[in-house]
Structure prediction request, 76 residues.
Amino acid sequence: MEFINVRKQEFWNTSPTNCFRSDFKAGQNFGRQFIHAVQHKKCTPFLLSEIVAAWPNELGDIEKGFLAEVGMKLAA
Prediction:
């Protein structure tokens, strides 16, 4: 997953562009990457807690896109 830096143990390694559309879409893409990894047993679902713990206190558009994607998959 491109948003995780394993070497540095950074579970949310992202850089916002300050463009809502681009950042939200990036977050959705990261959400799809996470779901794909869980579905194909490449990571444990418990990794989600590490990802969320690494988020900033105020959620940006990337985090909102991630939540939207993961939430939609869970609701399906």
About this structure: The chain has a mean pLDDT of 95. The helical segments are 20-39, 47-53, 61-75.
